[in-house]
């Protein structure tokens, strides 16, 4: 009885060792990428990945990992080889890992003097962020002129969950370092920032409110397909002004009004960032050369965003469609 | 006369005493509500405490120290595991899909017969047909490697436990703690020490899924009767001979049971490991959840479910003691044996029987020829070996024919036509239909109105009041109340421990978050009772309902727990109410199960007696059965609370708040101290409530003499 059981185990062992010994060859040109957690970033990433896979013969493992400091540290540690479309004004705590000027169109757009654990190159996409209200709200309330007037109208923005305060459909992902609540508090806006967890949840909430023609305040960025279908108006946050003491080491000491985080985000020259040690390996020379030359355009990303967001294509399909329709990307190849 | 007066005085005193405790509780409650109205802001620990107890900073400093000193070694281990994982993953992904299907199918046929064969065939084809073949292979690779490693390490540890009482004594508390910890807890240190991706996922899974194999190896070896060992020793066996020739072979059934449990636990965690960057089905489900793609998420979840059922059934079949090849042991191959009264069933089974006979004949003939040839060749050198090998091959014709088929597929794939990846045209996916159906429902104004009003009711009348109550209630009152409770239920020592643990949470400056977590756990448990107990009562009265219930509950416990976010997201969108609802769906099975168990355990004599005294069904239920089922219900309460706590870690994905959100934020901002403090906070709260309710259950059971 036990003999038969033992032989069965033996059979299983034989089968499994058979399995291990017949294992195939490992891929030499293999990279690990973190896929961004918003649609625009996903598109930029997929553009890069499709170039690496289809044109340069790499195998890219795509890992789901929330963007933020954790991702930067993972890249510095070499767990992930590269990630796409970081927005510098969101990467406030992370840019200490960069130690090279960032170029756009041959001009330096930002200087860094950090540790150099991570290297970065511009993607070509330029981003802008703000808080927005629907146009119908502004039309119905002519005396609403911008963020200073939000408190006057807070009752219209209140929901079941926020009680007497108004609701801001805030930045959905904690790792993006938006500091929504902090911003509202410093600026004296009696609103509560609601963090919904994902871009899609934020859009679903906003779209639902828009369809019901309710007043709502939301965080969003451009380029984004939401603006194609819905007319939104920015509330004109004060222009970006950096604040040096607003770091974890300083226990998030803010600089008061008019300064980050009580200001708008900067105009963001977005960047792809990667582990320098991995990229300097000889087998990755082609990948490095590609990242240096890649220059994606807002127009192209916006077109693909509409295909994904409104026409229901997957990111892969949209990127493949764009790649088949143009030859612009040929110039980025080494 | 005097006697009766005495008793009445005694009983009134008794009544009076009975009122004291509820009276005190009621007074304390009123006092606490008064306190809440007095406080102007949420209650927080004094600043001098939180400022001097900088746990977060200590952890982060410790992390830097470890980064400089230990990480080199842990990373080396991770790199080695990563190589192994890549090798296995490449093999699974690069092999033709036909080969993989055959590889899984043949052993299932050999051990479980045609029935299991069909299940495995359907399961594997399903992965391909919903377009998740590659992800399924990645999950399979992660799971296979972690199970392999935990079985190797676990069996060795189990043997040590069995051989040394001291080792066992030291091991036991560790194993106990490992089993209480929610699965997610393993992922944070794994990420910290081993990085991101497949390797840390495998190492975390290994540690998480090892306890059952250690326990059952130890148990199996210890259960070998002393007489057997003495006999072996009397025949002159050495200690190691006894171990390897007698004890381990006799413990094999127990060890196999451990392997089976390990597989199930590994699958659960491997799917969850997408949070630390592991690829596979879990990652697909997570992406679908993030994009609110309900259909895709459900299909991913179904793939995991099928995988779990397949391995479970296979493990059970393989650890069965006798070979049950359906030769003569049963009449039917596929359908239940009792159906042989139906002509249709006989018609369905007839061709299967012929096929089986034909296949068995062909294969055994081929193998016989093969073994005969081998025998001839070997006999040229040694006649005895030749005969032995022939016998061995004939006895294992399933194994050898399996290997022939696999080699045949490899040969065909590499030399004749490349089979390649799973054909796209074989498509069974209904994700678009599901998505469209859900969408049409969610834009329906009546539906929106209904969900909205449910949401508003729960938030306004339950969630917000309790949130406010617990967060505004001064911390010293809450701590005092919990300490008193643990003192009454468990004992003085645990009361002191409780005080320290709660003080830790407060000192870490996460008191408010902890109270929000506690409030959502309490409300979801309350709602679990309100919904689960009636279902349990219904199930205990209807056998058929109970059967359906069992199947659904089994499936619910096999699914990875963030799958429960999907239906909620579908109908209610994000927010704290949705987080609550997902928790309820996940945590309700034990309540239903244990209600059924408790009610059906009540001996029929009691209900007969009650009925003969003219009690109606309702009276019997409320006066007799229900009170007797209370201990079982409290047990259900205990399990539900633990599951509700476990769920708190994933609910931030759809808008949950409290400690879970702190863990997420800490991880995303690479603030290990913050994530760790919040994670520990959840575990501590769960532990305190677990201990109190377990002790209370025990008292109830003792009082009822069960």
The percent range for helix content of chain A is: 25-40%
What's the total count of β strands of chain A? 11
Q: Average pLDDT of chain A, to the nearest integer? A: 86
Q: What is the radius of gyration of chain A?
A: 24 Å
What pattern of helices and strands is seen along the backbone of chain A? HEHEHEEEEHHEHEHEHEEHHHH
Q: Can you say what the CATH homologous superfamily of the largest domain in chain A is?
A: Periplasmic binding protein-like II
What is the CATH architecture term of the largest domain in chain B? Orthogonal Bundle
Write down the CATH topology of the largest domain in chain B.
MetI-like fold
Residue stretches of chain A low in confidence (pLDDT < 50, at least 5 long) are 21-26
Radius of gyration of chain B: 30 Å
Strand residues, percent of chain B: under 5%
Helix content of chain B: over 70%
Q: Note the run of SSEs of chain B as H and E.
A: HHHHHHHHHHHHHHHHHHHHHHHHHHHHH
Mean pLDDT of chain B: 81
- The coarse overall form of chain A would be globular
List its salient traits.
heterodimer, A: alpha/beta, D-Maltodextrin-Binding Protein, domain 2, nine-stranded mixed β-sheet, B: mainly alpha, MetI-like fold, disordered N terminus
Description:
The complex is a heterodimer of chains A (334) and B (706). Chain A is of the alpha/beta class and 334 residues long. Chain A is built from twelve helices and eleven strands. Chain A folds into two domains: 30-125 and 268-332, D-Maltodextrin-Binding Protein, domain 2 (3-Layer(aba) Sandwich); 128-234, D-Maltodextrin-Binding Protein, domain 2. Helix content of chain A is 35%, strand content 19%. In chain A, the strands form two sheets. In chain A, strands 1, 2, 3, 6, 7, 8, 9, 10 and 11 form a nine-stranded mixed sheet that branches. In chain A, strands 4-5 form a two-stranded antiparallel sheet. Chain A starts with a helix and ends in a 9-residue tail after the last helix. Chain B has two domains: 34-68 and 444-704, MetI-like fold, CATH 1.10.3720.10; 71-321, MetI-like (MetI-like fold). Chain B is globular, with a radius of gyration of 30 Å. In chain B, helix 1 (2-38) crosses helix 19 (445-472). The two termini of chain B are 38 Å apart. Chain B is mainly alpha-helical and 706 residues long. Chains A and B meet through helix 1, strand 1, strand 2, helix 3 and helix 7 of A and helix 4, helix 5, helix 12, helix 13 and helix 17 of B.
């Amino acid at each position: 009885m036990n003999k038969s059981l033992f032989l069965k185990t033996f059979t299983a062992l034989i089968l499994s060792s058979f399995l291990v010994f017949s294992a195939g060859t490992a891929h030499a040109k293999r990279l690990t990428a973190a896929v961004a957690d918003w649609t625009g970033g996903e598109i930029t990433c997929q553009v890069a990945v499709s170039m690496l896979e289809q044109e340069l013969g790499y195998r890219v493992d795509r890992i789901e990992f929330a963007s933020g400091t954790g991702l930067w540290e993972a890249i510095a540690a070499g767990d992930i080889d590269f990630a796409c479309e970081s927005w510098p004004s969101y990467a406030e705590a992370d840019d200490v890992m960069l130690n090279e000027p960032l170029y756009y169109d041959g001009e330096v757009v930002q200087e860094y003097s950090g540790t150099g654990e991570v290297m970065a190159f511009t993607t070509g996409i330029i981003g802008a962020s703000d808080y927005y209200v629907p146009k119908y709200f502004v039309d119905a309330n002519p005396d609403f002129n911008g963020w200073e007037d939000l408190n006057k109208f807070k009752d219209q923005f209140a929901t079941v969950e926020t009680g007497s305060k108004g609701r801001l459909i805030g930045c959905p992902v904690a790792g993006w370092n938006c500091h929504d609540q902090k911003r509202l508090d410093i600026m004296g806006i009696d609103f509560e920032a609601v963090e919904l967890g994902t871009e899609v949840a934020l859009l679903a909430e906003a779209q639902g409110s828009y369809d019901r023609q309710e007043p709502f305040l939301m965080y969003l960025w451009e380029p984004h397909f939401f603006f194609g279908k819905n007319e939104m108006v920015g509330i004109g946050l004060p222009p970006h002004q950096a604040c040096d003491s607003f770091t974890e080491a300083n226990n998030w000491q803010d600089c008061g009004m008019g300064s980050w985080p009580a200001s708008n985000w900067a105009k963001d020259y977005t960047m792809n960032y990667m582990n320098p040690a991995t990229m300097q390996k000889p087998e990755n020379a082609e990948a490095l050369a590609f990242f240096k030359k890649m220059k994606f355009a807002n127009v192209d990303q916006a077109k693909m965003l509409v295909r994904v967001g409104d026409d229901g294509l997957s990111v892969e399909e949209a990127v493949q469609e764009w790649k088949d329709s143009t030859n612009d990307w040929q110039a980025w190849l080494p | 006369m005097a006697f009766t007066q005495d008793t009445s005085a005694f009983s009134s005193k008794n009544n009076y005493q009975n009122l004291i405790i509820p009276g005190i509780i009621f007074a304390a409650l009123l006092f606490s509500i008064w306190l809440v109205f007095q406080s102007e802001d949420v209650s927080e620990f004094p600043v001098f405490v939180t400022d001097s107890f900088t746990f977060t900073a200590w952890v982060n400093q410790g992390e830097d120290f470890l980064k400089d000193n230990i990480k080199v070694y842990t990373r080396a281990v991770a790199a080695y595991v990563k190589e192994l994982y890549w090798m296995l993953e490449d093999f699974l992904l690069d092999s033709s899909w036909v080969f993989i299907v055959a590889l899984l199918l043949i052993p299932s046929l050999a051990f479980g017969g045609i029935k299991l064969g069909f299940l495995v065939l359907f399961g594997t084809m399903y992965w391909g047909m919903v377009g998740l073949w590659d992800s399924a292979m990645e999950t399979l690779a992660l799971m296979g490697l972690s199970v392999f490693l935990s079985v190797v390490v676990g069996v060795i540890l189990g043997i040590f436990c069995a051989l040394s009482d001291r080792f066992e004594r030291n091991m036991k508390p560790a194993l106990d703690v490992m089993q209480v910890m929610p699965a997610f807890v393993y992922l944070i240190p794994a990420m910290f020490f081993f990085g991101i991706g497949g390797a840390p996922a495998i190492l975390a899974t290994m540690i998480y899924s090892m306890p059952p194999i250690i326990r059952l190896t130890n148990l199996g070896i210890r259960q070998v009767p002393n007489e057997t060992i003495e006999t072996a020793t009397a025949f002159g066996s050495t200690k190691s001979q006894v171990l390897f020739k007698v004890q381990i072979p006799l413990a094999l059934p127990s060890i196999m049971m451990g392997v089976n449990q390990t597989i199930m636990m590994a699958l659960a965690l491997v799917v969850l490991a997408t949070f630390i960057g592991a690829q596979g089905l879990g990652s697909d489900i997570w992406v679908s959840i993030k994009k609110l793609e309900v259909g895709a998420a459900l299909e991913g979840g179904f793939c995991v479910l099928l995988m779990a059922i397949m391995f479970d059934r296979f493990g059970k079949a393989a650890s069965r003691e006798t070979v049950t090849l359906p030769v003569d042991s049963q009449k039917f191959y596929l359908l239940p044996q009792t159906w042989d009264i139906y002509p249709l069933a006989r018609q369905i089974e007839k061709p299967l029987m012929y096929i089986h006979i034909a296949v068995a004949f062909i294969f055994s003939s081929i193998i016989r020829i093969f073994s005969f040839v081998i025998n001839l060749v070997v006999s040229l050198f040694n006649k005895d070996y030749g005969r032995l090998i022939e016998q061995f091959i004939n006895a294992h014709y399933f194994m050898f024919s399996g290997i022939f088929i696999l080699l045949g597929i490899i040969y065909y794939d590499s030399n004749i036509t490349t089979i390649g990846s799973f054909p796209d045209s074989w498509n069974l996916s209904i994700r678009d239909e599901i998505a469209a159906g859900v969408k049409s429902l969610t834009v329906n104004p009546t539906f929106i109105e209904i969900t909205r009003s449910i949401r508003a009711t729960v938030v306004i009348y339950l969630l917000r009041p309790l949130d406010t109550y617990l967060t505004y209630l001064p911390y010293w009152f809450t701590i005092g109340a919990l300490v008193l409770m643990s003192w009454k239920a468990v004992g003085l020592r645990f009361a002191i421990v409780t005080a320290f643990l709660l003080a830790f949470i407060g000192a870490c400056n996460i008191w408010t978050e902890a109270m929000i977590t506690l409030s959502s756990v309490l409300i979801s448990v309350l709602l679990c009772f309100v919904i689960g107990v009636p279902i349990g009562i219904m199930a205990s009265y209807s056998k058929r309902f109970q059967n359906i219930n069992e199947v659904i509950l089994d499936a619910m416990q096999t699914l990875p727990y963030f799958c429960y976010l999907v239906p909620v997201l579908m109908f209610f969108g994000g927010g704290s109410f949705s987080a609550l609802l997902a928790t309820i769906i996940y945590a309700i099975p034990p309540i239903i199960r244990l209600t059924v168990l408790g009610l059906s355990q009540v001996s029929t004599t009691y209900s007969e007696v009650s009925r003969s005294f003219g009690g109606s069904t309702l009276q019997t239920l409320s006066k007799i059965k229900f009170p007797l089922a209370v201990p079982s219900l409290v047990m259900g309460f205990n399990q539900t609370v633990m599951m509700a706590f476990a769920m708190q870690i994933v609910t931030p994905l759809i808008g949950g708040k409290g400690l879970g959100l702190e863990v997420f934020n800490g991880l995303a901002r690479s603030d290990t101290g913050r994530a760790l403090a919040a994670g520990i906070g959840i575990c501590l709260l769960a532990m305190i409530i677990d201990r109190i309710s377990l002790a209370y259950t025990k008292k109830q059971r003792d009082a009822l003499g069960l």
